[in-house]
Amino acid sequence: MEDLAQPELSDNLIEQFGRQILVPGIDEQGQLNLSKRKVAIIGLGALGTVASQYLIRSGIGEVHFIDPDKVEESNLHRQINYTLEDIGAFKATISKNKLQRINDITKIVSHQTNYQDYLKENENENFDLIFDCTDNHANKILSSQHSKKNKVAYVS
Prior knowledge:
40% of the residues lie in helices and 14% in strands. The chain has six helices and five strands; from the N terminus they run ααβαβαβαβαβ.
């Protein structure tokens, strides 16, 4: 129990993720490790919205949403972060706003741009994990090469 006394494992973190901390293999140290991780999700369509929900609910420390698209009515049946009221708004912004109301501990940053432009503007940004949830072959090559070059864990 002495890990609970660490200043990094705040009362708010314990309150919000206490049941997850009880899971064998996670414990206090595991939750603390999650809270210090920085993850990027490229693409907030069907796969990206599901990934975003689980990452935010797990207590990851910082998550960046990278997607230039706006919500369309045809997205609603498979992209779980959006509703009719969101049509025409940027997916990254809507996802940030909705998910921040689920977990106010995780820092969520939204980028309304494609991954190539994001890299040009944020060349020194470092992540612990990159999720490429796009359906664009060229983007997958770019994100894979960038991850390999920078020794970042990568899921596509």
